[in-house]
Amino acid sequence: MNSIVLDSSSIISISEKCFIKSFAGLSKKAELVIPKKVEFESIIKPIGIKEFELNALRIRMALKEQWLKSIQLTPEFLQLSVKIKDTANNCFLVDQKPFVLIQDGEAETLALMKQINASMLVIDERNTRMLIEDIQGLKSYLEHKIGKITINEKSALELKRLISGIKVCRSVELIALAFEQGFLDEELEKSKESLEAALYAVKFSGCAVSEQEIQEYLRNV
Known about the structure:
- This protein is of the alpha/beta class.
- The protein has two domains: 3-72 and 169-219, no CATH class; 75-114 and 126-165, no CATH class.
- 58% of the residues lie in helices and 11% in strands.
- A hairpin with a 2-residue loop joins strand 4 (92-94) and strand 5 (97-98).
């Protein structure tokens, strides 16, 4: 069975809009997994914070029901996660100083992709996704927000080598698949209107997706 790795941003987007039960059906199609750092970020850390506790409990239920699995990185791949983090955070320079792009959770997620040879990474956080898919586009995007950025070409090439072959999607694609497969039938009626509402709900939860992209999904319904 293929494995799909999720990071904290995607799990939280899905859980916040009450779509966590879609994992029950999706997990029959592919193994859904997270690294221990993502378990900490999405469950253990927020479990005692009232504002975030409900989401954490929903995600914990997914683990308990085994719709979602938490995997410990081996020492080799834990070391890889550290190297990925250090390299990524030296790719861009602002005023000649390294610009932090990713944290431990994203780095462990990328390393877990390699450890289990997963087929797909689900990630809603824009910077990390663009770092994987389009580093020049990320540079332009960030320059528009914060000003002049210099790329450390040596680190950028090294990062490309470390994370080569990783395919990514966002929670909107996962929700669209769950809707198509009938895994959201208990929550939503089977209509284009329902899918549109679901995709916008995930967008407003933090998934970096444009209205144009959502409309493109809907054209196929």
